[in-house]
Structure formats: structure tokens, C-alpha cells
Amino acid sequence: QPEAPFPTPDPNVPVQVEPDQTAPPLEVMVGQMLMAGFRGTSVDPESPVARDLLQYHLGGVILFSHDVELGSGPRNIENPAQLQKLTWALQTINSTPLFIAVDQEGGLVQRLNAKNGFRETDSAAILGQVPDDLLATMAAGLGIGKQLSDQGINIDFAPVLDVNVNPDCPAIGKLGRSFSADPKVVAEHGKAFIDMLHEGGVLSCVKHFPGHGSSTTDSHLGLPDVTATWTQAELAPFTSILRSGRADMVMTAHLFNTDWDPDHPASLSRHVITGMLRKSIGFEGVVVTDDLNMRAITDRYGLEEAIFLAINAGCDILLFGNNLTFDPDIVPKAHAIIMNLVATDRISPWRILQSWRRINALKTQLNPSSPLLPPDTPLVPTSMQ
């Protein structure tokens, strides 16, 4: 049965959040809402990322193997020994637990790969070829989970829950990133993958809500319009998995659909994030934007407007991959923008508190133990059975 029409939240109704005497200062909560990429295979006190952690309370980083703007590598990942040292150093800079994330889907999208000395796994398309056999998907999820946690990485931006509606979709189908054209198969393989990531000690982030599989263009290069192609079936894997309580995070898609929101893409839409995802499906966890450096956003919005819309839409973490284009000061710029938005009453401090609570609750699942490094760091998730 198709999903019931999602409710349209009233943007004029303030978010109700009870005062929290345990919350840190506003500038700390704002920093926790930011996740950014950076250049460097090591960190020292002079590194911009060290400044971002100490002065701006940066909540998370995303690691890449290749620097897109420079057209070369390595960017952050050189080999296993180097990567362990990097994540350990990042976690020791600040006392606040740090989200360290990576795109490790398998196939063409795996930042830890054979070129830099890691075990590779098959793509979702290959894993989903035998719809009723979840063993290969379970093995891939467990292998990825263990490999990432061994390296001090605690979030995998996976699995992809996009349904392979359009095999020629340049961002999903052509890259083999979808498990299947059948929403039920996508959901079952997605559940198996998440369960094994957790077994390996890593948090999951399902993507790209509410479904990228029918698009005909790539959001890295522009804003795809799926008004004529998207159907409720693409929402089914997300609904199934989110209501099962498995997913730790949801990543939004830079997609436009006039039926969702006639004015904004999904990632910046209150109708989609607060309406579809939170109120209709009932997801109460952390929502992270897809990379706000993608041209789907930067071609249409300035930095301040994109940040304002994303936060008011209901997103908790603003992701700046900082790789398609690089700005060493993206964190202080974004931090200053959010602080000013609160100071000028464009964003409520209660809205910031709401996101901090979700982020903080997820970080409490991080366990400060690792078999390979000093006992206090890096932080990896405990088993979430």
C-alpha cells in the first residue's frame, strides 16, 4: 500500500524543546552540528582541522582517499598504519568524541581500497543479484565494519537504500550502488548490511532520502528534478528500515520534486525532513545533509542561505565534503554564520539544542576502546544488538 500523504508542518510554529541545564554553551553545540573534510594524511597543532576542533568544536570529519579538486591523492588515506595514526590523533585533539566518517559502500565507492592496502568488497549491485541470499551482504557488512573500526572510523555513510529504478542513473545505477530494482530486496539487504556494520562496531547512515534511484542526472553536477520519475515505492526501503530502529543516521538527497516541495530541494526542505522523515515515518535520530559543496546546492544557494534552510528544515549535521572545492576556512565560516543566525533570531537556540541532543545521544554509543591503539582513543561504537 502506498504511504499516506505526509503532513505539512507549519514553519511558523516554533520547535518546542525543554531547557537543558546539562547542555554546553551555544558555540559548542553549533560546532557539533558541523562535519567537514580536510587535507592531510597527518595532523599537527598547526593544521586547520586542529584549529577547527579546538576553537570551533567541530563535531565530525569525513575522510577521502582522493583529492578531487587537485586531481590527485592521497588526501587522507595512504595506508593502514597511517590511517590509524591519523584517526587516533584526531580523537586526542579534543575531549569531545569525534564522528569520523567515510563512504565505504563497496564496489566503485570505497575509500579504503586495494590501492591503499585495504580489503575490498563487492558493490551493492553484485550483492543484491541473489535476492534471497543475504550471506554475502552480511559478510561484506561485517568485513567493512571490522575494517573501519580497526582504523578508528566510527561512521559508514552506507548502505545506499536507493531503488534501482533507472539503471542509467549516473549517480546510482551506473555505479552499481543500489542493491536492486525491487524495494523489498533493497530493504532486506540494507537491514543485513546495517546489522553487520553494528556487529563490526560501526554506526550506519542510510542514504539518499527520500530516494535517488530514478534520477537522470548527478547532484554533484546540478540539481536533479525527479518530479516525473519518483514514486512512493522508492520510499519503502527507508520506511521499513527506519521504523525497524536499525539506522543511526539518515543522509538527505539533493533532489527536487515539486510534489515534495515546490520551492526547495529535499535536503533543504522542511516539508521533506520534518514532514516526511520525522512526522510521517517517525525517525527521531540524526539527519545529515549530503555534501553541501555539491553543485546541486552551490549553483543555487549562497552558503548562508543553504545553512539557514538546512537547519530550519530539520537537519542536524551539515556536511561539507570540502573536496569538490576546498576551503581551509569552511568550518569557521559556517560556525560564524550559524552563530549570527541565532543572534539575529533567524534560527532559534532551541532548534540548535534539539540537534545537539540528537547528536549527543548518538555519541553516547561510542566506546572509548580499541584493541590496536592506546586505551582512551579512538572511539568506536559498542555493539548495538
Write up what this structure looks like.
The chain has an eight-stranded parallel sheet with strand order 9-8-7-6-3-2-1-10. A two-stranded antiparallel ribbon has the order 4-5. The chain has a two-stranded antiparallel ribbon with strand order 11-12. With about 375 residues, the protein is an alpha/beta fold. The chain is built from twelve helices and twelve strands. The protein has helices at about 25-30, 50-55, 80-95, 125, 135-150, 185-200, 235-245, 270-280, 295-300, 305-315, 330-345, 350-365; strands spanning about 35, 60, 100, 105, 110, 155, 205-210, 250, 285-290, 320, 365, 380.
Task: List the main descriptive attributes of the protein structure presented here.
disordered C terminus, about 35% helix, about 375 residues, two-stranded antiparallel ribbon, disordered N terminus, 12 helices, alpha/beta, globular
